[in-house]
Design brief:
Length: 135
């Protein structure tokens, strides 16, 4: 009987070691991605390189990579069934779209307020002559 207990304990210990290795692997990946992000931010602050649009695109891509690892490992979705994953990812994508839509809408409101601010001359639309069409 004692031998059975040691095998069960050994199997659980191997599973625990595999889980610990996976968590450490995820930690190192997230740490490396974060170091790259911080390094790029300091590089941009010191040299204005790379272009801001390219830098923001890189940040968005790296943030998506980090989100994938966090969701896959710490929310345990890497080993879940496809329907459960889609149940979480589709609303997440809709939420991301929602944020982008509100940022674009807010930017258009800001630009409109700037264009219509008091003291700024209004741009007149070109006058259309009704007589040009009639001879």
């Amino acid at each position: 009987m004692e031998h059975t207990h040691t095998i069960v304990g050994h199997e659980q210990n191997e599973h625990g070691d595999a889980t610990t290795r996976t968590i450490w692997k995820t930690f190192w990946i997230l740490l490396c991605v974060t170091i790259v992000e911080v390094s790029l931010a300091f590089l941009y602050l010191e040299t204005d390189f790379p272009n801001r649009i390219i830098l923001n695109s890189i940040f968005i891509g790296l943030t998506i990579v980090k989100a994938f690892f966090i969701v896959a490992e710490f929310m345990h979705l890497r080993h879940e069934i496809k329907n459960l994953i889609l149940t979480i990812l589709i609303p997440l994508m809709l939420f991301v779209w929602f944020i982008i839509a509100f940022l674009a809408d807010g930017d258009s409101w800001r630009n409109m307020r700037k264009d219509l601010s008091p003291g700024k001359p209004h741009q007149e639309l070109p006058a259309v002559h009704a007589e040009e069409g009639h001879h």
